[in-house]
Amino acid sequence: MKNLASAVAVLLLLACPPTSSKDADVARASKAKQALLVVQLAAADSIPASDLAVKARLEAAGFQVRMVDHAEPATAATGRDLVLISSSVSANKLEGRYRDVSIPIVVWESYALPHMGMSGRREETDFGTREKERYLWMVNAPHALSAGLPAGMLNVYAKGAGMNWGKPGLGATIIATISGQPDHVAEFAYEKGATMDYESIAPARRVFLFLDSATFPNLNDAGLKLFDAAVTWAVGDSAKQ
Predict the structure, then answer these.
(1) Inter-residue contact 138 to 125 (CB < 8 Å)
(2) What is the rounded average pLDDT of the residues 78-83?
(3) 189 Cβ contact list (under 8 Å, min separation 6)
(4) Of the candidates 132, 133, 95, which has an alpha carbon nearest to the alpha carbon of residue 111?
(5) Backbone angle region of 124, left / alpha / beta, with phi > 0 → left and psi within -120 to 50 → alpha
(6) Contacts of 36 (CB under 8 A, 6+ apart)
(7) What is the DSSP string of the chain?
(8) Of the candidates 86, 122, 83, 87, which has an alpha carbon nearest to the alpha carbon of residue 100?
(9) Tens digits of residue pLDDT in 180-213
(10) CB 188, CB 197: distance < 8 Å
(11) CA-CA 20 to 30 A from 46: which of 15, 132, 171, 202?
(12) Cross-strand partners of 152
């Protein structure tokens, strides 16, 4: 959380350096990063606890967050700095409506990957979910998305839980796989302009994370660092990464 909040604060100060403490408050309010969190809203009083926890963490880091249902049109992303797609969504309902938006996206619904052009279309070959997992195998420790965590086995859950995975295209940067399953990629990213699957070109940065629908509250400190790093990298300046 500290790393994510600090990164957002630096971006805000660089965008609009204040001339007084009062000006600083106004600057922070007017320049706060805008995030769109796409979830499944069956009813206003039945928002998944995991999605509420994501929203709270983003807000604590300085983002202004709007939560929308997966059936809303992609125009909901207009003016936003970041789109996050929860695994509470129905991939068939969401389809590819955010596929072409030129805004960074962090997604943790593996069944949405083919709709987003981020993986192939074969279930259990190009994407899927593993039950009762806890460990990742970090393969790209120098990358900013690795959050300074070491290479090798890494426990990211407080207890065993579902873990999403995908098989990305050749233009992806692979950060971690599910431990013992090198073909099941748990975190990967595409830089803007990178070739994704089926020759799709990433319109902006894209990040896939391993979270399942109810696992965000189950993340331990290492897991939270990976989430924060994904958000920070997605909205960051590609020239500085």
Answers:
(1) no
(2) 98
(3) 145, 172, 173, 175, 205, 206, 207, 208, 230, 233, 234
(4) 95
(5) left
(6) 65, 66, 68, 76, 77, 80, 82, 83, 84
(7) -HHHHHHHHHHHHHHS--SSHHHHHHHHHHHPPEEEEEE--SSTT---HHHHHHHHHHHHTT-EEEEEETTS-GGGGTT-SEEEE-TTS-HHHHTTTTTT-SS-EEE--GGGTTTTTSB-S-BTTTEEEEEEE-EEEE--TTSGGGTTPPSEEEE-BSS-EEEEEE-B-TTPEEEEEETTEEEEEEEEEE-TT-B-GGGPBPSS-EEE--B-TT-GGGB-HHHHHHHHHHHHHHHS-GGG-
(8) 83
(9) 999 999 999 999 999 999 889 999 999 999 999 8
(10) no
(11) 132
(12) 138
Distance CA 119, CA 73 (A): 22
β-partners of residue 136 are 154, 178
In the predicted structure, residue 6 carries a pLDDT above the cut 80: no
pLDDT tens-digit readout, 123-153: 999 999 999 999 999 999 999 999 999 999 9
> Is residue 190 within 8 Å of residue 196, measured between CB atoms?
yes
Look at residue 8 in the predicted model and tell me its pLDDT: 53
Between 214 and 192, residue with greater pLDDT: 192
Class of residue 212 by CB neighbours under 10 A (exposed 0-12, middle 13-18, buried 19+): buried
β 135-138/173-178 pair status: antiparallel
Residues composing the chain: 241
Cα end-to-end distance, the chain, whole Å: 19
Tell me what the pLDDT averaged over the chain comes to.
88
Amino acid at position 43, single letter: A
Amino acid at 186: A
Name every residue whose Cβ is closer than 8 Å to that of residue 25 and which is 6 or more positions away in sequence.
none
pLDDT higher than 50, residue 5: yes
